[in-house]
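Narrative progress, year one. The postdoctoral researcher (J.K.) led the effort to move from monomer predictions toward full complexes, under supervision of the PI. The following entry was the first complex the group processed end to end, covering 468 residues in total.
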Amino acid sequence: MILEMQNIQKSFGGLRVLRDISVSVDAGEAVSIIGPSGSGKSTLLRCATFLETVDSGSIRYEGEAAVTTDEFGNAHYAAPEALRAMKRYYGLVFQQFNLFPHYSVLKNITDAPLTVQKRDKAEVRETAMELLRKMGLEDKAKYYPYQLSGGQQQRVAIARALAMKPEILFFDEPTSALDPELTGEVLKVIKQLAMEKMTMVIVTHEMPFARAVSDRVIFMDGGVIVEQGDPEAVFGAPTQERTKQFLMNYDRA
Amino acid sequence: MSFSTMLSTMSAGMLRTCGIFFLTLIGSLPLGMVVCLLRRSKSGIVRTIIKIYISVMRGTPLMLQLLVWYFGPYYLFRIPIGGWRFPAIIFGFVVNYAAYFAEIYRSGIDSMPAGQYEAAEVLGYTKGRTFFKIILPQVIKRILPAVTNEVITLVKDTSLAFTLAYSEVFSLAKQISASQTSFLPFVIAGVFYYVANYAVAFGMERFEKALDYYK
């Protein structure tokens, strides 16, 4: 197991956003998380990447405990240095890309591997250029983010995350900020990664994409996992009433 | 007094004006950052103290503050005043301008989208590295127009050193004009200030242009 999240609970004020959620992701698996807005999908990713702290539950990367919960139900995080070291296991692609605007495309990709991971300069540069080629952006290395389209920026963001050589890559609605025209080019890149057996968790509203690309689909609503399984099963023959309803609304739209 | 004597006397005054100007910037630009960071401290007491400091600095005339810094040590503690004039001026200007710069920095830092911090955090940057490498360079670009405004005001505010009878260009202009019953010193002082501010505006514009390579 690359990622194990068990019995995750998270509230904002009085609002319970995650109610006892457990998710595990195996190496090479592509998992899509679908569900209506406010169902807790993004919060789950933000908890997995330590951008939010859980109230209780446990999170493990490669068996290494990041969060554990004592018998009284209180979550305990590992020491800050241990948590920072655990960031090598995962990467995150944001809805809003969040590239660094003052860095060139190349520097966006190489800076963290060089300064955080202290890797070899020539190797990092080679890795970055290879990733840019893969993203179809090899001619954009010297550009600045504002000179790129949204779809290109998101592909740079994916390259930036991959340059850290993560074990697992999270996508938080990677195409929600893009025009339909630009959505395709980003989805194509993610599909390519799925074919290469990159371990991924993708929060998305692109249903046909989720169906095509994932090994497993998780449908969340109201802070719980309503249904999960093989994409053909979840999309083709959902067993839960709530899932049927949600997918029907999607088809109509 | 001949025109050339007048000009050379006032030029010497302008040099003292420049002295106040540069020393104030050298002191207040970094001090403002310290104040700004303390203003965002986790400790409520520190935040309150800094808020009061900023409020007093902005809420009272700089001219009055200069008088307080200069005469205060004597009236309050009977410390002899000799040799304290210039340090008092610089101290007064620095702590006053630091308060304004701190607020400009704060507005810039607050305007940064949370996504920049989050992206840096996920990539494993430490807090310090995130601030100095990712946040601060973007903040500087954002606040440059506001800083330019403040620096231009400072050029003109140096004339407040007149309050403590420091012979910078404004004091000299007033003095020479009175003794020579001439209007000319005012014109010369005006030209000096204008040229100085023209240079400031020119320099800052170049700086802004230099940061135009990204948006």
